[in-house]
Amino acid sequence: MQKPVILGVLNVSPESRQGHSIAIGKDSILKRAAFLKKNNAEYIDIGARASTNRKIKIDDKTEQKRLIPAIKALKERGYRISVDTWSEDTAIKCLEQGVEMINFTSSQYTPKLLKALSKCSAWVVIVYMPYINPYSIDTSKACTYNFEKMLNYFKSKIRMAKRYGVKKIILDPNVGIIHPSLGNYRKIRLQIEIISNLKKFRKLGPVMISVPRKKSLDDTAIMASLAIINNIDFIRTHDPEIITEIL
Are 45 and 8 in contact (CB under 8 A)? Predict the structure, then answer.
């Protein structure tokens, strides 16, 4: 087994359902970041609008208003930063602030975004998104998940990214975005199947898993352990202390 790079989640979105990860205001942001770093998070992954609470929808302008001060506060303290967004405009503005990674949760890649990533020599996480973005899931028909479809998605996005000079690419099969209509049992079964077959994605490049946070932290630990056993390269988590304990 290899030791994965940990991304610790910090949410500046008060509507997030993951209450313990929410940090509003500079002092709270720095406190949360210090906790994540203490538990071996190498990147602080900032989110400014919740994808799990789609009843409250935030526009790009509000997302950026939340993100920019947080980025500045963390950059002053020397933190390495990833930004979780599905907005091209937000991603580019964050790159201009010096973030090292864009965790892009949209299916809509544009030359403008890819050129900005290449210019900044930043990492991009290509997140599997069979819908337009997380807000569009509830109004979309549930897609069929299969490995061939997911691999073709990644191959297409990788070709496009490389065409514009993006060299630092991470793949995320996105086990947390499964359509709610599938039900909890089928959802968990599919999550386990994807994590157990990480080697299929790793043939294309380094892979990240956003460990789904379960109601029971034991279940979260089981998912994380399965990812680690399957030689995951990056883990994105709200609970880096669990990953540290497992390792």
Answer: yes
pTM for the whole structure: 0.93
Residues of the chain scoring pLDDT < 50: none
CA angle 218, 222, 227 (to 5 degrees): 145
Tokens representing 232 are: 């995951």
- The strand ranges marked E within 157-204 are 169-172
Q: Which residues 6+ apart lie within 8 Å of 84 measured at CB?
A: 9, 45, 46, 47, 103, 105
- Give whole-number Cα distances, 222 to 156, 211, 242, in Å: 32, 10, 10
Residue 170 CB burial class (10 angstroms; 0-12, 13-18, ≥19):
buried
What whole-number distance in Å separates Cα of residue 85 and Cα of residue 191?
A: 22
> Residue 147 belongs to what H/E stretch?
helix 147-163
- pLDDT tens digits, 219-230: 788 889 999 999
- pLDDT, tens digit, 9 for 90 and up, residues 15-70: 887 778 999 999 999 999 999 999 999 999 999 998 775 678 899 999 999 999 99
Whole-angstrom CA distances from 60 to 42, 46, 99, 171, 247 are 27, 15, 17, 24, 37
What are the structure tokens assigned to 149, written together?
Answer: 């479809």
What number of residues does the chain have?
247
10 Å Cβ neighbour count for 76? 10
Q: Which helix (H) or strand (E) holds 112?
A: helix 111-120
